[in-house]
Amino acid sequence: MSTQQEQPQEPESQEAPEDPEMRGTESPQQERLKEKEQGLAQEEAVDESDVEGETVHLKVFRYDPEVEGKQEPRFDDFYVPFEKGMTVLDAVMYARDEFDSSLTFRHSCRQAVCGSDAFFVNGRQQLGCKTQISDLKQPVRIEPLPHQEVVKDLVVDMDHFYDQMHAVEPYFQQEELPDGDLEEQRQSRENREKVKMSTRCIWCAACMSSCNIAAGDNEYLGPAAINKAYRFAMDEREDEEIKEHRLRIVEQEHGVWRCQTQFSCTEVCPKDIPLTEHIQELKREAVKKNLKFW
Amino acid sequence: MYEHDVIVVGAGGAGLRAAIAAHEAGADTAIVSKLHPVRSHTGAAEGGINAALREGDDWELHAYDTMKGSDYLADAPAAETLAQDAPEETIQLEHWGMPFSREDDGRVSQRPFGGLSFPRTTYAGAETGHHLLHVMYEQVVKRGIQVYDEWYVMNLVTDDAADPNDRECHGVVAYDVQSGNVEGFKANNGVILATGGPGQAFDHTTNAVSCTGDGHAMAYRAGAPLEDMEFIQFHPTSLPSTGVLISEGVRGEGGILYNAKGERFMFEYGYANNSGELASRDVVARAELTEVNEGRGVNDEYVHLDMRHLGEERILDRLENILHLAEDFEGVDGLVEPMPVKPGQHYAMGGIDVDENGQTCISGLYAAGESACVSVHGGNRLGGNALPELIVFGKRAGRHAAGDDLGTAEIETGYGPDVEDETETELPVQPGSAGLDTAGGVAADGSGVATETDGLLERAVEAERARVDHLMDKDDGVQHAQIRAKLQKAMTDYVNVFRTDEGIRKALRVIRECREEYQNVYVDDPSRTFNTDLQQTYETRNLIDVAETIALGALVRNEFRGAHWRQENQERDDENWLKHTLISWEDGEPNIFYRPVILEGEKTYEPKERSY
Predict the structure, then answer these.
(1) Among B12-21, B274-283, B593-602, which stretch is predicted with the lowest mean pLDDT?
(2) The CATH number of the domain where A275 resides is what?
(3) Residue A179 is assigned to a structural domain of this protein
(4) Which chain A residue shows the shortest CA-CA distance from B316?
(5) Pairwise CB contact (< 8 Å): A237 & B485
(6) B481 touches chain A (CB under 8 A)
């Protein structure tokens, strides 16, 4: 199931009936949900009378393959008290801890380095922890990353992304090392600078999710994996022949030549890595080496 | 059931290094981690790796700085091993392709850090941990080491010999977060806990949401003591609204701290007349809070860290990441204005009691990294000493678990002949499970300790399955988030930078309440698919156990040493307290005892006044 296909429908289960009587009595789970909704309504009332008064309206994608009422994707509304500096991650954590503990998403470091919480926020791939609520139009629509299978709520299956990352032999391969005890390999400041941006990737998969080519060609390595290859191919500490081997990997049928330079990956990258430029540069390198292209 | 020679729990710096070492020593090795490796919190480390690489520096100086920084509570064999092995391990990272910052001659750069007598902090911008983590994960991929990612380890499988020193660890029970399956993992040689810190016991922390002290709590309940848990480092420069860390590298490069009156208080009020901003972290954190408490804080909450005078070029070259953090998480442009900072929980110097080979008193159970206490950091960790600990002691634990001979350890573990029992302190409440109902095994009752070795793993798996069923079948009660928030608040209110006897007692009462409430905890999410509610409910139980040991340690240690400051006892007391606090779980009750610190290794470290 992909959220892209589901997204245009406004699911019917989005709003619970106004009158609690109309919802009937069901399982304890639904009872609790009902209580929570009532609690939610109270929260809203309190917030409106509050001096600060502001609440954030979230519309959050919900899906769970084994829970009744969630097997068909729907959007749930949450009203979260606004605080200065609040991020999208803060808001969904609040919604989970105060209203619905089944609201599920990956998150860990809260500081844009673990790469767990890339979501589709108001139609754009962004890290939840790095996106200020105050910069967003309300209601804030939060969905899982498009073009990846949804496991549950905002959690997508990352296996394909990891497979592509692993496909470019993402590890340093210099066999010959300098002689002598504790002797390091030399690297010029310029060369370190050249690879610097490419080493910042946090594997959040925002780029892959934004890429039309990746959406249409499941075997396309994708911007993150190609960037990983760039990171090694441009590192002067590896020998020329290894570089050539790396170029062969990325110039294969589902490699760099697939990129149509739409820059969507570069636009969404939370680490500002010039992904499209890196892909272009590898194309040029491949041409220079007279490698065939597709 | 899964079976491997060595099972590493956790995939941050220590776990990955341990796995690589065990694999290289020939063991069939697997990593089981609740996060995919690249999500681990090692990635958030900014500053660098201390290693004596250059002329004019040597391991003796590094060891000396570490012992002094620890306020003479580190064990000399541990500090010396760290200092001796760090250079080789740092160069190993370079050989694996780590993108270190470079000098003009192409060699790796080093910079000054707090408490160091030589600029030996090797770094890669202000994102050293990110690079270290990714480089090591690359090496794990290269070697094809099996990783069970998004598997949450629930408990250790240990037999219940009466004396923990006679126990053996046979594996772990883990839960596949994606499917909800609970499975056993048999470890033929050993289990290495590399589960990181317990920062989530506090509510203002630089630590990730995942840093819940799982390894601490599991080892503790299995009978391995926790050591020096009262020593919590509060980093002087975290952003006030989120706790996001601003690296010590800013001060290392020349950043200056100012109070609301624009005074450079580290000098003007005499907190550290020689080192100023680069005094040890505990000294700077207390200075900042003193400024705030005496009315000289900005908005009565924080102080300013100014790096504008370093110039845009130098900032972009060495501290660019800091600009992003200040902007994204505090809305401040570090190039045009000073950054607001205040102390935040950052690091636990204490942890699972291990020797310099990573072994606990339980045979086959190891720990490394922040979850362990060798002890390298004693009362206070120096900036730049956490990352070398991961790689040095991660590697040693991996090799030892795989069967390599590392020689006999000099550091003792567990309750042994040299320990001294705690007898004096009266406790405000009965800590531990205290006879609470343990229905469904959800209380911290030492479950996982079974009677016979045959079928041990199977029984442990069944016990965890029953626990999951109990938590999920229960339809009402208390949700873990409520308990966690209460616990975190109490710890930050009462067991923070400034501690009082009365405050710590209050914290222990709240912890006891949390434990009682936890008896009635339930998991609301009915799904077996990616049930983070269930996982976090387990984590919260671990936090209760760990928070209790932190508060107990803080209560009994009535002296001021390193990061542990007590209002009633504002002096270091070498006569009575040159010893480690150890707390072990015995039949549902914490047992507190002490072991003397080792101040003699290859060199002797005479306790001196620690001034900067």
Answers:
(1) B274-283
(2) 1.10.1060.10
(3) no
(4) A193
(5) no
(6) yes
Q: Which residues of B touch A238 (CB under 8 A)?
A: 97
List beta partners, residue B591.
Answer: B584
pLDDT of residue A293: 52
A185 part of contact set with chain B, CB < 8 Å: yes
Tell me the residue range of the domain where B268 lies. Answer: 238-342
Active site annotation includes B314: no
Out of B17, B111, B167, B281, the active site residue is: B281
Q: Which of A70, A89, A111 to mutate to test the interface with B (most CBs of B within 10 A)?
A: A111
Please say whether the beta carbons of A234 and A194 come within 8 A: yes
User: Phi/psi at A13 (nearest 5 deg)?
Assistant: -75, 5
Can you read off the two tokens belonging to residue A105?
Answer: 């998403």
A261 and A280 housed in the same domain: yes
Could you tell me if residue B504 is inside a domain?
Answer: yes
Is there a domain that residue A182 lies in? no
Q: What angle do CA A12, A96, A18 make, to 5 degrees?
A: 35
CA B255 to chain centre: 26
Work out how many domains chain B is built from and give that number. 3
Residue ranges making up the domain that contains A254: 159-174+189-288
Residues B193 and B304 in one domain: no
* Nearest chain B CA: its distance from A105 CA (Å): 8
In eight-state DSSP terms, residue B356 is T
Q: Indicate which CATH number applies to the domain containing B312.
A: 3.90.700.10
Give A-chain residues touching B125 at CB under 8 angstroms.
Answer: 196
Strands A124-127 and A118-121: antiparallel
How many angstroms separate the CA atoms of A265 and B165, rounded? 55
Question: How far off is chain A from B485, nearest CA to CA, in Å?
Answer: 10
ipTM of this complex prediction, to 2 decimal places: 0.93
Last residue of a domain, one of B287, B313, B342: B342
Backbone angles phi, psi at B387, to 5 degrees: -65, -45
pLDDT in tens, B317-368: 889 989 999 988 888 999 999 999 999 999 999 999 999 999 999 999 999 9
Cβ <8 Å between A114 and B125: no
Instruction: Verify whether the Cβ–Cβ distance B325 to A186 is below 8 Å.
Output: no
Q: Does residue A198 sit in the same domain as residue A284?
A: yes
Instruction: Flag whether residue A195 sits within 8 Å of chain B, measured between CB atoms.
Output: yes
The answer on B493 and B411 residing in a single domain is no
Q: Which residues of chain A neighbour B43 with C-beta distances below 8 Å?
A: 109, 113-114, 202
**Whether B315 and B443 share a structural domain:** no
User: Residue A271 carries which side chain, given as an amino acid letter?
Assistant: K
- Domain containing B456 — which CATH number? 1.20.58.100
Which of B500, B451, B367, B377 lies closest to B7, judged by CA?
B367
Average pLDDT in chain B: 94
Low-confidence ranges of chain A (pLDDT < 50): 1-51
Residues B88 and B213 in one domain: yes
